[in-house]
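User: Here's a chain of 679 residues. Predict its fold as tokens.
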Amino acid sequence: MPSRQNLLGLWLLLTGICLVVGLGVLIWLESALQPSSQTRPVLWVLGLSPALLSLIAGWALERRLFRPLRQFQVLLARLVASPDAQGDYPLDGWLRPLQPDLDHIRDGWRQDRDRIRAAHAQGAEEAERIKQELEALLQVLDLPLLICDRHQRLLLFNPAASEMFHDQPGLGLGRPLSQLLPHPSLADALQHLPEDGTPHQLLLPGEHHWLRCQLRRLGAYHGGALITLQDTTAALEHDQRWRRTLAQLLPRLRGHCGSLNSATEALLQVEDNAEFKQRLENAIEQESQALAGQVEQLTHLVEAHQLSQSSLEETWSNDLCGALKAQLVQQKISLTPVGIPAWMKVDGPALLALLQLLIRQLGLAQQVKTVELEVLLGNRRVYLDLSWPGEPLSEQQLQQWRSLPLFDEPLSPRIEDVLEQHGADLWSLPPQQPGETPRLRLPLPASSRGIQPLQRPTPRPEFHDFSIADLPAPSSDLAGMPLQQLEMVVFDTETTGLDLRRGDKIISLAACRILNGRLLADDAFDQRVNPQRPIPPESTAIHHLTDADVAQSPPIEVVLPRFRHYVGNGVLVAHNAVFDLLALQLSESGENSVFTMPVLDTLLLSRAIDPSLEGHGLDALAERFELSFPPGTRHTALGDARVTAELLLVLLPRLASRGVLTLGDALALQRKIEQEQQG
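Assistant: Prediction complete.
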């Protein structure tokens, strides 16, 4: 159907032609017939009647036919895009008799959809139960794990992996594993994993840590692999220190042993030279003492290495105090915990033995019977303060205590070994004010949980999607890929103004991801940008961002490469993409911030689908398809991007009904609309 503007123009043109022709005929009749006063009104009525009839007919057709037809078009569009949408307005005009048939078709379609949904729900009940059990297992699993398909796209990651890679924008469903772990050795190992599921070990270097990976082929239809990760930086560093020290000790031990052996053999052969015999005995004594010292160092090294095999784990200070109070009952020493409890990252058994030994030594040195244990939360440390009524400890006394063994056993670790394991020390703090008691302070590694009880991170609504494995390989021709299978990144910008070529800059950049026809709820990029220029008040009135809001934000030179990394291999989508894409292109500053991927524009797609309808702005389309902006999100980059993503999802079935099935089809349709607008 022609657009309303074209119909209005044709109607006015036809009415004008009828009016001009009628007036011409009247003027000719006036001059030719010279009508009387009785016949002149009849002639004027006959001459103007075509224009009047055209005016009345156009008005009637608009009210009774064309406007109802446009309403009918909107109803059909809404029915295709959102079959379950409610609040449909009734047909009007000459199409009103079609209302019962339309209601019957619409209700029947919705009933069929309800029955299909019920059948799907019943058939998927068992699968949902298994899925929930899998999710519950992944929530409590502390070992970071990833699952990828044969094309090395992420199908699953658990909260532990999300916590490990919290600062990595490459973590996301469907994203290439190479964006998260860019190691050629990993990609090669995944391609050559044994089919029988035999695990393969791999050590990967990072910027600040080493990751030990265990790779295992999964016997699933997607032919993917399971990857478990472990941060072994601390263990490797300790092992290297231990091996380095051992490598230095062993040659010395061999040298002392060789010297002792040579001196002993010479001493056995010397009997009549007393002076030489005395020199040999002195040499044997010196070598024996040196050997004893080296053996002591080796013993200390073995003790420390045995203790280091225990890993530091999250420990609640109240649990530690409860266990310590029970241990001190036999020594008749009472322990009173004070302060706010906190989480620590410690070797619980070793720390418990250390505190018990320190309190026992306090009891022997000063007859202490009551001790207070206070927990203080610092910036990166948790301070355990032991206080008692008595005298402060001297540094000499603390130095003696550091060498005490924890247990009465051979090769028992010492207090200084536990301190080294935790990167800690012992401090003696004398009273600072009258009424205070002396303290013994022990700084320990703090946990990221701080003073909060143990809580699991909030699970992501989407942290696994095995249907990604059904998508074509990433190397497939994008133009031939179905729209429903594309990875699309829907983005939006907020700027200081609308004149980008004269210096207006981006102040907010946000995006969300559509994967396999679904909008991922928590996979988002949202970053404010410092434009390094003032924001005009008229722009603030729209997006409500002020200079103070973006003052501490990074500049676009920092944000844009991160956004490019977030986009990855996805197809960009925006509403009125010309503006937002120009904002990106004018801000490009290097190879890591160049956007050359295809771009879909929901504004052009909507105009192509409904050329006869007015209003293709984001607000008008959101109202037409019953898409809602959460309060306060309109004219925010992320809020607009998410509504644009929902709009694209409701346009996809309407594009499919018109034969637009692939990315190439959609881009061709956009080019056609652009050419028509330019023409």
